[in-house]
Structures are given as structure tokens and as C-alpha cells.
Amino acid sequence: MDRPLTGPEKAAIIMGFLPLDTARQVFVHLRDVEKRDLVKSIGRLKVTDFEDVEASVLEYVNILKGSPSGLIEAGIERAMDIMEGILSEEEREHILQNLFNDDNNLFESLKTLKDVSPIVALLLNEEPQLIALMASYMRPNMAAELLSTLPKEKMRDVGEGIAMMGQTNPSVLQKWEEYLGKKIQSFHFSDASPETNGLKNIVAILNGVTRATERTFFEALEDKNPELAKTIKNNMFVFEDIGLLDSRSMQKVFSTITDNEMIAKAIKTASPELKEKIMSSLPKQRKDILEEELEGLGPIRRDDSEEAQQIIANQVKEMERNKEIVIDRGGGDVIF
């Protein structure tokens, strides 16, 4: 072609390489204007120069190289999806049993886990120490999902185990390897013992669970180990900690949250002191609107209130991470 290919023309060439079913799946995800341009380009496409094909494919490959993790589906879940409907359950189980027989150890595999369901059944009836060990090497959101599936007492014990975990002795890892070997062939642990920051891990995990799970966890842990519960709370941010914000930070936070109904649900179950502090930080007009929302709210489920509280707490944490606000947790680390 005498002129450079347009984007839709390059896309038309790539679509020509794909199997029909795959091309249809791609097409479904396009915007209407993209669909029109692509159909037009496919209909008019006349490739007379192989260099055009090569250039289009190489550009596509280079895009993949630029961000492989976001564009390539991989991991345990992808492998299971591919096997579904092709292999028998027995064949799939045999392959998964040997999943960790290569040089990658179990911990590295857990770091890329995107769905805990394949291992929930494996761990649900196991000792809290083992679950804590596995959870310590998962991404916090995956560990939070795993923690949420546990009964109250086991959730407490697993959380306690994560918080108190440091570097695990290789002989202990070997012990678990031998035990798991009875259920899954050759979970391979390396001789090196990965070091974990237990407190940091449990805080990151708890920041990802629901308010109901968080409440259940702390109620159980405070009965057994109140000092540890206090230490964990001091290192994480919960909705009640909004009371730690100074008036300027409080105003910044609620200026970014425009859903008055959500705020009303959140403060409906808050302490009178916290409710008053939030209300007093708002401009008079918005305070009046929020009071009307509260009056018209009526009875609500605790879960709905806690969900709203979690959204607001997450917003506060995000603003702190972005250095938009400062939270004074005591200890003299904040200068006014």
C-alpha cells in the first residue's frame, strides 16, 4: 500500500488472523463507532503487500510486550478454564496435582493467584497455622477473600497467626510440605525461607475485607489477644478513625463524596460523637440536605450501613496514600 495503514485497517488485518469465534468475541467488546470503522475496513480490505501484514502483526506484538500482564490471561484460573469441557474431572485433577512440580515454589504461585476458590476447599478444614502461612504470601485482596470464608474462631486464629508471623523456619515448611503431599502431589518448597512482615500483611488483608468480617474478626481476637487486636487497629484505618481527621481534612474528604444517601447510611450507625463531627464539617446547605436524607432513610440493614462506611474509609485511605490529607495517629509524627 502506498500510504500508511490506518488503525482500523491494521485491526482488520489482525481480525483476519483470528478464528471466527474469537473475532466475534473481540467485536462484541468494541464501541459502536469502532465497530462501524472496523466493518468498513474489513469489507474494503485488499492486502497486496506482505509488508503491511508484517507491520500490523509486529505492532500488535509490541503492544503486548509493553504490558503483558494486562493483556495476557494466565494463572491457575486460566488453565482451569481451558481444561473445562475438554478433559475429564480425573484428568484435570491429575494435572492440577502436579501443578507445583517445576522449579517455581508454592509461594511464587500464590502471589499470582486471582481466585481463591481452587484452594478454599483444600484449606478450609486445615490448621490455622497452615492457612496463615498460605495467606501471608497471597496478594492482600485474595487473602482477604480467603479470610472471609472462614468461621469466626478460625478467622481469628488465622489473622492472629498472620500478624505474628516472621521468617518461617525451613524445617516447618518441610513439615507442611510432607503433610500436603498426602493431598496434593509434590507441593515444592524451596530451601530458602521467605521473610514476611506479619503485622503489615494482616493490616493489608483486613483493609480488603468487608466491615462485617472486620467486626467479627476483632470481636473474636479481642477476647483472646486484646493487645494484638489493639496493635493491629493502631496500624490500620477503619471508619471510626475518621474522628482523627482535622477539620480541613474532614472537609476535603466529604467534598469528594457526593452521594449524600451513602453518607447518611454510613453515619446512621456511627457514634453520636462521630456523627456530630462529620455533620459539623459540612457547609450548612449540605448539612441540611444530609439531615433530610437521615430523616427519610428509615430502618436499614446493618450490612448496608457498614458497606457505606467501608466505601468512605477506603476513600480516606486513598487520599492519605496520595498525600491529599494527613491522619494524626498520635506519636508526634504530625506537626500542626
UniProtKB/TrEMBL annotation:
<dbReference type="InterPro" id="IPR011002">
    <property type="entry name" value="FliG_a-hlx"/>
</dbReference>
<keyword id="KW-0614">Plasmid</keyword>
<protein>
    <recommendedName>
        <fullName>Flagellar motor switch protein FliG</fullName>
    </recommendedName>
</protein>
<dbReference type="GO" id="GO:0005886">
    <property type="term" value="C:plasma membrane"/>
</dbReference>
<feature type="domain" description="Flagellar motor switch protein FliG middle">
    <location>
        <begin position="119"/>
        <end position="187"/>
    </location>
</feature>
<dbReference type="InterPro" id="IPR032779">
    <property type="entry name" value="FliG_M"/>
</dbReference>
<dbReference type="InterPro" id="IPR000090">
    <property type="entry name" value="Flg_Motor_Flig"/>
</dbReference>
<dbReference type="InterPro" id="IPR023087">
    <property type="entry name" value="Flg_Motor_Flig_C"/>
</dbReference>
<keyword id="KW-0966">Cell projection</keyword>
<dbReference type="Pfam" id="PF14842">
    <property type="entry name" value="FliG_N"/>
</dbReference>
<dbReference type="Pfam" id="PF14841">
    <property type="entry name" value="FliG_M"/>
</dbReference>
<dbReference type="GO" id="GO:0009425">
    <property type="term" value="C:bacterial-type flagellum basal body"/>
</dbReference>
<keyword id="KW-0145">Chemotaxis</keyword>
<keyword id="KW-1003">Cell membrane</keyword>
<dbReference type="InterPro" id="IPR028263">
    <property type="entry name" value="FliG_N"/>
</dbReference>
<dbReference type="GO" id="GO:0006935">
    <property type="term" value="P:chemotaxis"/>
</dbReference>
<keyword id="KW-0975">Bacterial flagellum</keyword>
<keyword id="KW-0282">Flagellum</keyword>
<comment type="similarity">
    <text>Belongs to the FliG family.</text>
</comment>
<keyword id="KW-0969">Cilium</keyword>
<dbReference type="GO" id="GO:0071973">
    <property type="term" value="P:bacterial-type flagellum-dependent cell motility"/>
</dbReference>
<feature type="domain" description="Flagellar motor switch protein FliG C-terminal">
    <location>
        <begin position="219"/>
        <end position="327"/>
    </location>
</feature>
<dbReference type="GO" id="GO:0003774">
    <property type="term" value="F:cytoskeletal motor activity"/>
</dbReference>
<feature type="domain" description="Flagellar motor switch protein FliG N-terminal">
    <location>
        <begin position="5"/>
        <end position="102"/>
    </location>
</feature>
<dbReference type="Pfam" id="PF01706">
    <property type="entry name" value="FliG_C"/>
</dbReference>
<keyword id="KW-0283">Flagellar rotation</keyword>
<keyword id="KW-0472">Membrane</keyword>
